[in-house]
Specification:
Strand order of the largest sheet: 13-12-11-5-2-1-15-14
Strand content: 15-25%
Number of strands: 23
Largest sheet: 8 strands, parallel
Mean pLDDT: 94
Helix content: 25-40%
Bound molecules: 2-acetamido-2-deoxy-beta-D-glucopyranose, calcium ion
Radius of gyration: 25 Å
Shape: globular
Number of helices: 18
Structural class: alpha/beta
């Protein structure tokens, strides 16, 4: 943008003289270009996307067979949740070989097939990188248990505390999935730390050998054609070396629930940022020859100050979970405004903002905000500056499918027990993608799928939404286009309380019509004078209304008197 402004200010003569210098300077300072800026990235949960061989579980060839879907949406990249060799204690987040593909998903040749075809369609491929822990079936861990050098120090081992003649865990730390974070090894006669399931021993990141192993893994996948990494649970990498008990949080939850403690010694340690910086450097140095920069996204549910530090330490996309962790169906318009403003204010100069709509750890957006507001978050994400990240199924408004205790397979649900599993289980948001109204929603030919297909697949499926004039799918395609328009890509941003219940976002550039989003948080029709409150032209055209709003596209609206039905959102331009 600064380029364009500078150019229009210069005379033709000086462009010839100075232009070359400016271009030269900009290129050397800012190449390779941030290709993800002003785009959407699509998260694929591979077990649930498409099953190519009829065993009931999604796989790589399934994804490959559906690459046209991403091209049709025109997302810039897909990121795929773990596909590595795994005993599946945490459905792939427990890895027993970081450089090979699990047979459930296919082979390394299938992966190469996927990336080659994706590239030919202009779709980039990002992998999930899970450095905090391996599986307890990883050869490193098996040798660590036996104290075989150099693996003896690859994990976080501590002696037990001797209490009244018997050993107890070294401290009170809890696993994210409930219960002690320590597991006794009768062979080694020590406890190992596992911040997630006991099948996921934490690696020892104060050990330089472990850091080297992780760099090798990153390089391996760059050699196999990946365009970047989504780094899982990075704020858990390092623990305070004193291993002190953590204080109680005061939350009203059972004593073995993770939320019962304040995680001041096991999370968000300063050393995390140092490690991230070394990975950034290594990846950049290795891929310097490539035209485009490799993307690093980091997953950490953390405060604003940490987010800023993640940017500064080399994360291109410190995933912004505000629409998941901070805001919900009960949030006020003011709370939305404050949260969005503070994020935009935090993003350091030269970096790209990002907005996460959903993921495999949280209820789907249709459930978090209500089915009538399924589009509200993708519309916000599209109109706000930067990158949008959507979860498979968001594009058709898929909903959670409630599970019985018997059907529950997620360890987070199973550990919580039959009374509380529904509060913790992540199964409801992981059901198979609903392609069409045929058997298993077109996901698989198996008699039984790894998680049940949602019963609503005859009403909610992609094939149907492609046929309909108005659908979540058609809307999302429009939103992907909107992101690339000059006003949305480069304009200024204002978030405005139009009324107590209506949030407005305006994107502006000099001498062109603004792009305006209005969101009705009330579930009754409201009439607003957006012209006065937002200082916008008296007439604007409807770009798109949320599904169910009944607001037709391409009509001209009098902005002094806009009727917004219950729960509706609308974009004007
Ligand atoms: C993102 O894209 C916009 C529009 O092209 C540009 O003005 C901005 O500088 C880009 N941001 C980064 C960090 O590249
Ligand atoms: C690549 O994947 C496609 C789609 O699944 C499949 O038809 C094709 O046979 C695969 N090619 C190879 C070489 O595996
Ligand atoms: C898809 O996105 C690319 C990159 O932003 C853009 O150049 C292209 O025109 C888009 N394709 C369609 C069909 O809109
Ligand atoms: C992972 O699998 C590859 C391919 O089978 C093998 O060469 C490699 O040794 C394995 N890595 C480890 C650490 O076992
Ligand atoms: C140790 O045993 C004594 C006597 O049985 C008991 O009073 C005390 O609470 C125990 N201490 C701990 C830490 O369990
Ligand atoms: C981690 O590795 C370092 C370096 O090898 C070692 O000194 C340390 O004792 C290990 N830490 C734990 C908790 O095992
Ligand atoms: C919203 O408020 C209702 C009524 O107070 C409550 O039942 C519900 O749990 C709240 N939802 C969230 C996501 O906090
Ligand atoms: C759950 O599983 C048990 C044992 O397999 C079975 O007896 C019971 O009927 C099942 N309950 C439901 C609600 O499916
Ligand atoms: C599916 O179920 C049918 C009827 O019960 C059975 O005949 C068939 O063998 C099953 N197919 C598979 C792949 O299990
Ligand atoms: C509006 O909210 C009330 C109370 O939460 C609810 O009973 C009602 O069904 C909602 N109406 C619509 C149109 O969603
Ligand atoms: C959002 C996300 O990726 N969450 C993952 C964080 O890490 C744990 C352990 O690897 C997984 O269980 C979560 O799914
Ligand atoms: Ca399969
Ligand atoms: Ca750790």
């Amino acid at each position: 943008m600064s380029n364009k402004v500078i150019f229009t200010m210069l005379s033709l003569f000086s462009i010839i003289v100075l232009g070359a210098c400016i271009i030269g300077f900009t290129l050397s300072a800012k190449t390779p270009k941030e290709w993800w800026n002003n785009s959407f990235i699509y998260q694929v949960y591979p077990r649930s996307f498409m099953d190519s061989d009829g065993d009931g579980t999604g796989d790589l060839n399934g994804i490959t067979s559906k690459l046209e879907h991403f091209a049709d949406l025109n997302v810039s990249a897909i990121w795929i949740s773990p596909i590595y060799v795994s005993p599946m204690a945490d459905f792939g987040y427990d890895i027993s070989n970081f450089t090979d593909i699990d047979p459930v998903f296919g082979t390394i040749e299938d992966f190469t097939n996927l990336t080659t075809r994706a590239k030919s369609l202009g779709i980039k491929v990002l992998l999930d990188f899970v450095p905090n822990h391996s599986s307890d079936e990883h050869p490193w861990f098996k040798q660590s248990v036996q104290r075989v050098k150099p693996y003896d120090d690859y994990y976080v081992w501590l002696d037990g505390k001797l209490v009244n003649g018997s050993y107890q865990p070294p401290n009170n730390w809890l696993s994210v999935f409930g219960g002690s974070a320590w597991e006794w090894s009768p062979v080694r006669q020590q406890y190992y730390l596992h911040q997630f399931t006991r099948g996921q021993p934490d690696l020892n990141f104060t050990n330089p050998l472990v850091l080297m192993e992780m760099e090798k893994i990153l390089i391996f996948w760059i050699d196999h054609g990946v365009d970047g990494f989504r780094m899982d649970a990075v704020n858990y990498l390092i623990e305070d070396a004193r291993f002190l008990d953590e204080p109680a949080s005061g939350a009203n939850v059972p004593a073995d629930d993770y939320d019962s403690l304040d995680h001041v010694y096991s999370k968000d340690m300063d050393q995390t940022f140092v490690i991230l910086k070394t990975w950034r450097k290594r990846i950049d140095a290795y891929s310097k020859k490539d035209k485009e920069q490799k993307l690093i996204l980091t997953e950490a549910y953390a405060d604003m100050e940490s987010m800023k530090r993640f940017y500064e330490a080399g994360s291109d996309v410190p995933m912004n979970f505000m629409f998941i962790g901070q805001l919900n169906a009960n949030s006020t318009t003011m709370e939305f405004k404050r949260a969005i403003d503070s994020w935009l204010g935090m993003v350091p100069k030269g970096h790209v903002a990002n907005w996460v709509v959903g993921n495999h750890d949280n209820s789907r957006v249709s459930n978090r905000f209500g089915a009538g507001r399924a589009d509200q978050l993708s519309m916000l994400t599209a109109v706000l500056p930067g990158l949008g990240i959507i979860y498979y199924g968001d594009e058709i408004g898929m909903t959670d499918r409630e599970m019985t205790w018997n059907e529950t397979v997620d360890p987070a649900g199973c550990n919580a027990g039959p009374e509380r599993f529904m509060l913790k289980s992540r199964d409801p948001e992981r059901t198979p993608f609903q392609w069409d109204d045929s058997m298993n929603a077109g996901f698989s030919t198996a008699n039984e799928t790894w998680l049940p297909v949602n019963d609503n697949y005859k009403q909610i499926n992609l094939a149907k939404q492609k046929m309909e004039d108005v659908s979540h799918y058609k809307l999302l395609k429009q939103l992907v286009k909107l992101k690339k328009t000059p006003v949305v890509a480069t304009g200024t941003t204002e978030v405005i309380l139009v009324t107590e219940n209506v949030l407005g976002v305006i994107r502006k550039l000099p001498d062109v019509k603004p792009v305006v989003l209005l969101v009705n948080f009330k579930n009754e029709t409201v009439v607003v004078d957006a012209r006065t409150w937002m200082n916008i032209p008296a007439e604007l055209t409807v770009f798109a209304g949320s599904v169910g709003s009944g607001i037709p596209s391409e009509v001209i609206m009098d902005t002094t008197e806009i009727y917004l039905p219950a729960e509706a959102s609308v974009i004007l331009y």
